[in-house]
Specification:
The structure is a single chain. The chain is mostly helical. Helices cover 54% and strands 6% of the residues. The protein contains 29 helices and seven strands. A hairpin with a 5-residue loop joins strand 4 (430-436) and strand 5. 50% of the residues are buried. The model is unreliable at 1-30 (pLDDT under 50).
Amino acid sequence: MDKKTPKLLTTITLFCVAVALISCKQTKEKEINMTTNNILLQEWTGPYGGVPAFDKMNIEDIKPAIEKGMELNLQEIDEITSNSEAPTFENTIVPMEKSGEALDRVFSYYGIWSANMSSPEFRKIQSEMAPILSDFRSKISQNAALFQRIKTVYDNSLKTPLEADQQRVIQLIYEGFAMDGAELDEAKKLRYAAINKELSTLYTNFSNNILADEENYVVYLTEDQLGGLADGMIKSMAKIATDKGQEGKYAVPNTRSYMDPFLKYSTEREIREKVWNNYYSRGDNADEFDNNENIAKILQLRKERVGLLGYDNFGDWRLQNRMAKTPENAMNLMDAVWPAAIARVKEEVADMQAVANANGDNITIEPWDYRFYAEKVRKQKYDLDSDEVKQYLQLDKLTDALFFVAGEVFNYNFTPVPEGSVTVFHEDVNVWDVTDKTSGEHIGLWYLDPFARPGKRSGAWATTYRSHSTFDGEKTVLASNNSNFVKPAPGEALLVSWDDATTFLHEFGHALHFFSSEVKYPTLNGGVRDYTEFQSQVLERWLSTDKVINQFLVHYKTGEAIPQELVEKIKKASTFNQGFSTTEYLASAIMDMKFHLADPTTIDVDAFEKETLEAMNMPKELVMRHRTPHFGHVFSGEGYATAYYGYMWADVITADAAEAFAEAPGGFYDKELAAKMVKYLFAPRNSMDPAEAYRKFRGRDAKIDALMRDRGFPVAK
């Protein structure tokens, strides 16, 4: 999950979500081997508990593999419902937990094609399969006989409680089926399924439109237009241009990994505006890839669907099993922070305008100027040059820092796997063996895909190819982190910004959450959306610890440690630009909620966005982090719909937990507190209520005061 743009998530495609209730389990391998030779369905073999055959995956196998996987999964469900014995946890829930593993393997490959290696050929298959997969999901989620068995087990458990983890499993499964229309009458079930089918197509169209605009809008520069840009970025832009048949020019791809540094450093204001417009207009260009109609239909269908279940709006339905519980509670948190955020933006803009005036630039700060002049203010106020900081932030050294933190806090050791022992889907991907430092026990494998390339979606995310469980034999974890760093020219060091380094740790936090799992049943590996970002956000805090700074932040040429005075500047500037970062995020989170609380009957998406932001007093000098037409978190699936606030909800918990570490005798490396964090906040996954888990860690609920102090905002008395 991209920290802020997923931040997911971690990422799971729509279709993986669609089978989440019935996947991540085990199936009958002998039957699969007897009925198909499709490699995408085959049981994983080799070391480390078996690994995906990435070297043998073929796009032509996707469709038949999905079709066969669905067939096998439905057979497994039929076996459960045809059981003449009275429903029990062992004869109903356990086989459900075992079902669907073959299909889940298919989606591990599918997710790679979708997120890491997309192509027009794949997108065609994706569009074709979306409604078919929706129908498949409905056949299970609306299976009356299956739900009756689940309900019987659930009702009996309320009278005679099961073991704690079993009780949690049946609760989550029952609530999931009920939320998905299992208790509706037949007519409403049919309409519910039809809506899901239509939505699946709209989600796919939305995602593909964004990717199309990222691929189609490339800005080409000449040598005299490179002012302010770092040598590494220039070399990378030259290579991309050459690869695209534009020898002698320099390409600025339409992705955040290029947009952000270009707007920060380029001295060419007109080109900054063009790059800014390209990026923030994705999905909003009034052409065949425009997403506004898709969004309107999505909002209408979501409201109609939850209406069938008796809910007034999508938010009430979605948040019932989240920590926030209601849209009102989520909005109360955001409303508490918003005034301080926009007030800080006003101060930041005034500082930037003063710099521009002093330089004689004769401009008024516009959105494409914010990053550029903010950097100048940073230098002036804190004598801090982001480009100077980058000289000490090498990706290789940051990776070593990740492993150090994992060892100190989680007791993990990361060792590169022997060459050729594990196949990968791209030459850029590397793999490490994760073991327990004390026992040497194998925990799992960590895959890293760090670089941007055509066909790979923007942002950064974490995902798993296999999750931990023990109920049917111990499963080790196959976790993956994915970034979009600009690949350096051969022989050049990859230098990243402090923000990018923070995101790198963020996504690694998700991976550590996967590796830490101690759950018995696969269902318990699921996350609570407004809590699951805590584990990633809290790990960011270790970047600025002395042990990481002193050991891993070294100059890429000299190898010398970062000077202490520069470290002090970084720490002093820690609250710098919080107005911008908080406001651009909050604007997206609030818009997400307001779209789903509004009447969508005749909604004009662009107009609603504009009018709502104006009513919120959104500063004109910046925009939402994710403008609505490319807000993939919310409109390419449902994982973050009315739930994007979850990053801030998790931020409250993160800031509160960070203060606990700051106050501990051993600081962020306090062994007792670290063990407590892993035990209660990482290892349980979703086996206990997150609020209860946090109270076990902290001794109380989290307070918003720590977040406000963290961002340099005033704390209410």
